[in-house]
Design a protein that fits this description.
Elements (H helix, E strand, L loop, with lengths): L15 H9 L1 H4 L29 H9 L8 H7 L7 E5 L3 E2 L5 E2 L3 E5 L2 E5 L8 E3 H5 L4 H4 L7 E2 L2 E3 L1 H13 L2 E6 L4 H12 L4 H4 L2 E5 H6 L3 H11 L5
Parallel strand pairs: 5-9, 9-10
Antiparallel strand pairs: 1-4, 2-3, 4-5, 6-8, 7-8
Length: 237
């Protein structure tokens, strides 16, 4: 289902309070223009422009529904589960500029940065993508952070490329890295643990964690909980 912006500061894919706050914050509003890559598969695709956050299954939309809601970081329960400060700045589509070899930088985005926590959000995605090993070897710290032989490599393709990339970004910025996904997807959670096991350093592993939307829901307001239950089937854990 592809939603559209309605009247009176409302959007079918968002809580009204979250959407109003997104529209009032220029840096957040830019996310509403993120291109929907599946537009070519949508009937009557030429009638109007679709954006990624218009899609009912968008993990970015879910992320912004949760964290753009007024006062969400004022809740002790939310700050405690994330390990962030009340005054932490939220940056959606954050570019960590992870260092590559030969003084290059990676311009790929991280879904959200809150203070010193980088968050990778998933909803219905099949996996964390794969990439050829040489693509990962471009990263300056790849072989110093990971035991390459412990990674899942098949036919030259490394599984969970997004997670490897996210860990390297967190290490470069001295941040923690959190994977946020649905507890009904134990396959994604296990894949994340598989990546963690390929990191020899206990100090780095201590900065990595996994949270579920259900755990986050437990820390939210009742209105947000009702929205998540009705729209996504996400119930407080």
């Amino acid at each position: 289902m592809i939603y559209n912006e309605g009247e009176n500061d409302c959007h079918g894919n968002f809580l009204r309070e979250s959407y109003r706050r997104i529209c009032a914050t220029p840096a957040w509003r830019k996310r509403l223009d993120k291109v929907y890559t599946g537009s070519r598969f949508v009937p009557r695709q030429m009638e109007r422009r679709r954006a990624e956050l218009d899609c009912c299954n968008s993990s970015d939309a879910l992320l912004m529904n949760v964290f753009c809601y007024p006062g969400v970081l004022a809740r002790n329960s939310v700050r405690s589960i994330l390990g962030v400060d009340r005054r932490a700045i939220m940056e959606f589509g954050f570019r960590p500029y992870t260092p590559l070899n030969r003084n290059g930088i990676d311009r790929t985005e991280i879904d959200l940065r809150i203070g010193d926590v980088l968050i990778e959000a998933k909803l219905i995605e099949a996996d964390f993508q794969s990439a050829q090993l040489p693509l990962l070897q471009r990263y300056r710290d790849f072989e110093s952070v990971f035991d390459v032989e412990s990674l899942s490599v098949r036919r030259g393709m490394v599984a969970s490329y997004q997670l490897v990339r996210g860990v390297l970004a967190a290490v470069a910025l001295n941040c923690s890295y959190c994977v946020l996904c649905d507890q009904r997807r134990p396959d994604l959670i296990e894949e994340w643990y598989r990546i963690m096991r390929a990191i020899p350093s206990a100090a780095i592993r201590s900065q990595l964690k996994v949270l579920t939307w259900q755990e986050i829901a437990r820390a939210l307001s009742r209105k947000q909980q009702a929205f998540l239950a009705e729209k996504y089937g996400i119930l407080p854990s």
